[in-house]
Write a structure and sequence with these properties.
The chain is mainly α and 221 residues long. It contains 7 helices and no strands. Belongs to the peroxisomal membrane protein PXMP2/4 family.
């Protein structure tokens, strides 16, 4: 409990954060005075950094040998103009539905609503956006991406969301919820993205090796 309390205070600045110097206090003030803009900048930056970091971990370079691929600015745009506004609206609705309700039953119900209604909406929008960024141009391609990824993504959400929401309920002011969820999503997304990239690169190397071996077999000795 003490460790979790210390983490919560470190993230929020505690009850006395207003007027304190430092980046965290200034950031939290911006969340209160300019919530949507601050969330857009946060989500856009984290989404771009996630793509860049995942590419570096997976050693996934573009044709020029750089980790800064065309996906980086696209992910920044997704984070700023799609993910952040959507999260802002959905979390505001969730908070208003349970405003003033602090009982254990209300908190559990809030977690259930988040997992069964909000998470599916956010994950669907995420998968559709990722499909388009990856080059999907038809409804069939987008639907295939959603169908393949929806349940795996939801399973991750069902494991992590109750824990992160329970932490936010206990230790964070409501205006800090969305950025906190963004940070958690950044860590999970970076891991998933890097693993996906590694698998894709391994498949490409295997296909290239098989094609090269097949070419040699066509012209023996």
């Amino acid at each position: 409990h003490e460790l979790a309390d210390e983490i919560g205070v470190a993230l929020t600045g505690g009850k006395a954060n207003v007027g304190q110097p430092g980046y965290l206090a200034a950031y939290l003030r911006q969340l209160q005075t300019n919530p949507l803009r601050t969330k857009m900048l946060t989500s856009g930056s984290l989404s771009a950094l996630q793509e860049l970091l995942a590419s570096w971990i997976a050693k996934d370079r573009n044709k020029n040998g750089h980790y800064f691929t065309s996906r980086v600015p696209k992910m920044a745009a997704y984070g700023a103009f799609i993910s952040a506004p959507l999260g802002h609206v959905l979390i505001n609705i969730l908070q208003k539905l349970f405003a003033g309700r602090t009982s254990l039953r209300a908190k559990i119900l809030q977690i259930l609503v988040s997992n069964l209604i909000i998470a599916p909406i956010q994950n669907t929008v995420y998968l559709i956006s990722m499909a388009i960024i990856a080059g999907a141009r038809t409804i069939h391609q987008v639907h295939a991406t959603w169908k393949a990824g929806f349940m795996p993504v939801m399973k991750v959400s069902w494991v992590t969301s109750p824990l992160t929401l329970a932490f936010a309920q206990k230790f964070l002011p409501e205006h800090a919820w969305v950025p906190f969820f963004n940070i958690v999503a950044f860590c999970i997304g970076t891991y998933v993205n890097s693993v996906t990239k590694k698998k894709r690169l391994a498949a490409l190397r295997k296909r290239h090796f098989d094609e090269s071996r097949g070419g040699r077999d066509d012209y023996p000795g």
